[in-house]
């Protein structure tokens, strides 16, 4: 394959895959294609495989996970199907090639791949083959050795795909939750509630939002991140939702409450939008989503001109002024904030007078 692409002056990148039989030609310096030669697995450890190249198409098909993934298409349109994958595809069945347990033990990530492809192919939510589920339950602990990034890559597609609610519940029933960054007893009721609530919102939905509904606490969000190696945005959104979801309808009752939340340190507007979506606040969500928050009119230099010294308190002063600004639906001007509200903010942030007993006494000899 390398000779073929080299002869056509096609550049190949990412040579790390060559030992597994995969090369990545870059066509017209615009698009990458992964091309893999035929191979068989000589040795597997549940994560990685030592491979040997072959020219036998059936041997290559035999190492595939699912029958629907073991078919080949010739240049003349001929389908080569050694394990009845075409028939399974026609009947919308998701079946492992050969013994499910053997296929799973070759790469435990195939457990989650099974559920992902089930969501893509199956007609019914719960038409699983019981022998397949038995093999999954018996080998689920193998997922403990799979990297969090690979697990999250599969879960992201499962939780927003077809039959997502039923598939996640099946994953939990099979005892896979702890290996997927979830608590031993996920919050199933909250997950079901969210699945219903999201029907009133336009897709796409963020996978991390659905995963967060299965958590019971902020600590669970931290553990999920440690297991799945979430992106910074996903990590912070999971923490934000678990920290604030119980305050909706108690501390947060008006639209301006969510405006104020938007201007808090380390918070972005999208976090608040996702919180409203999570809690099924469609009217507030639509209002906030359509809002373009103007630039905050007060700067640090303006505070300096008003006699505020540069110190750690400067950030607190700006935050308090932003909250007042948000309470006004972002209508107050810089002059109004500085003339009317800055003195009150400064007064509220004054340090309490220290009692003599707490002061360091200067002694004389």
Characterise this structure.
It is a single chain. With 365 residues, this protein is an alpha+beta fold. It folds into three domains: 65-177, cca-adding enzyme, domain 2 (Orthogonal Bundle); 181-293, cca-adding enzyme, domain 2, CATH 1.10.3090.10; 296-348. It contains 18 helices and eight strands. A hairpin with an 8-residue loop joins strand 1 and strand 2 (22-27). Helix 11 (218-228) runs antiparallel to helix 12 (232-244). The model is unreliable at 353-365 (pLDDT under 50). Residues 129-179 form the tRNA nucleotidyltransferase/poly(A) polymerase RNA and SrmB- binding domain.
Write a short abstract of this structure:
With 365 residues, this protein is an alpha+beta fold.
C-alpha termini separation: 90 Å
The CATH superfamily name of the largest domain is: cca-adding enzyme, domain 2
Radius of gyration: 29 Å
Number of helices: 18
Q: How would you describe the oligomerization state of the chains in this entry?
A: single chain
State the CATH topology of the largest domain.
Answer: cca-adding enzyme, domain 2
Which structural class best describes the helix and strand composition? alpha+beta
Order of helices and strands: HEEEEEEHEEHHHHHHHHHHHHHHHH
Overall geometry: elongated
| Domain count | 3
Going by CATH, the architecture of the largest domain would be Orthogonal Bundle
List the helices and strands and how they pair.
Blueprint: H1 2-7, E1 11-13, E2 22-27, E3 31-32, E4 35-36, E5 39-44, E6 49-53, H2 57-62, E7 71-73, E8 79-81, H3 85-90, H4 100-106, H5 110-121, H6 130-139, H7 148-159, H8 164-173, H9 188-197, H10 207-213, H11 218-228, H12 232-244, H13 255-262, H14 269-278, H15 282-290, H16 300-305, H17 313-327, H18 334-348
Helix pairs in contact: 4-6, 5-7, 7-10, 9-10, 10-12, 11-12, 12-14, 13-17, 14-15, 17-18
